[in-house]
Amino acid sequence: MGFLDQLSKQISQGVDRAKFEAEKFQKTTRLQGEVNEFRRQLDGKLGEMGQRAYELQRAGQISSATLAELAHAVDQLRASLLAKEEELKGAQAEIFVEPPPPVGAAPAQQVPISYDQPAPPPPEAPSQKICGVCNFQMPATAMFCPNCGTRVA
Ligand SMILES: [Zn+2]
């Protein structure tokens, strides 16, 4: 088999694989959606059944300690929900109120802020010195003036 034949076979295998992965992804996504839908319907039906059991319990048509307990919990949750809904309504109705400017008040005083001064840097050894004869400035390490040759060390 020639090199080009081998290459085109590898490429077509790559295409097959990509196609397989794409179809697999599509299929699993669709099945996951169907599973979720069945779960949703199941939850809905159970909720409906619970609602019905709650009503029957409250109407005294069925009597079960477990259902009575659940019905009590539902009542409490309902009360909490109502209170929370009121709280939410209140929070939604809140509007921002600009604080009124103080009447005739002087502009805010500048309060001096005191803080510790940073320690001054340690005195440095002079890095320059000046020739006593010609006033030439030179490094402190110089032993002779580079300008006039006077010994400065
Ligand atoms: Zn000098």
How would you characterize the overall build of this protein?
This protein has 153 residues and is mostly helical. The chain has a domain at 3-93. The chain is built from 2 helices and 2 strands. It has helices spanning 3-58, 65-93; strands spanning 128-130, 137-139. A two-stranded antiparallel ribbon has the order 1-2. The chain is flat. Bound molecules: zinc ion.
Q: What are its keywords?
A:
153 residues; mainly alpha; two-stranded antiparallel sheet; 2 strands; binds zinc ion
Summarize the structure.
The chain has 153 residues and is mainly alpha-helical. The chain has two helices and two strands; from the N terminus they run H-H-E-E.
Instruction: Characterize the main sheet.
Output: 2 strands, antiparallel
Shape by Cα distribution: flat
The proportion of residues in beta strands is under 5%
- The secondary structure category is mainly alpha
What is the helix fraction of residues, given as a range? 55-70%
SS element count, helices: 2
Layout of SSEs?
Layout: H1 3-58, H2 65-93, E1 128-130, E2 137-139
Antiparallel strand pairs: 1-2
Helix pairs in contact: 1-2
